[in-house]
Amino acid sequence: MAGFWASVFLCRPKPRALAGSTMVVAMGTRGREPFREGNLILERSNGEIDGDVTHRTQAGWLKWRAATGVLCDKKFLNRLKGKTFRVAIRPSLLYGKECWFVKKVFEQRMDVTELRMLRWMCGHTMIDRIRNQDFRESLGVAPLSTKMRENILRWFRHVQRKTYDAPVRRIESIILEGKRSRGRPRKTWKERIKSDLHDLHLSQDLTRDRVSS
Fold this sequence. Notes:
The protein is mainly α. It is 50% helix and 4% strand. The chain has a domain at 26-143.
């Protein structure tokens, strides 16, 4: 068991050292290569976060492969494997995602990555035709998209409790100059918050109530 917990400790993601940093680090010189804005990796051509989604999935697979000695060992119980996944693997997949303006396609990509990991942890593939819900119940792992929503709403609650002169709240009053491109405007982080609050039948006033939250 000592080796098991040593593997879990080594696979845990490192703490955030530069959280809140707004420094821009260029990833390349060509116009279509991604660049980093704080904790996000954006595409130069359209400002999307496809690069950040790919980076998170790759980081999750690296952590998963480092713990395969535990996660894919039939000697360990599925509940213990699920706990290892929740402690060591899932945080690396969700790192910095509370600031994502998430699309459905991004949620699907993250869920597909998670389910592939869960199937291999249980020793099965899609050929076995076992429902995804069976793997989640066996391992005790909630959907990754649900955890992403929880992280986004938790960060929103933290932001709403800040004073209006705080830097994180000043961004709300920024007015961008210029004309937007044709077509439907992109879905913003604030619109995602409103949609999640509506789906969960929650009120924005609850963010300042510590007892109910």
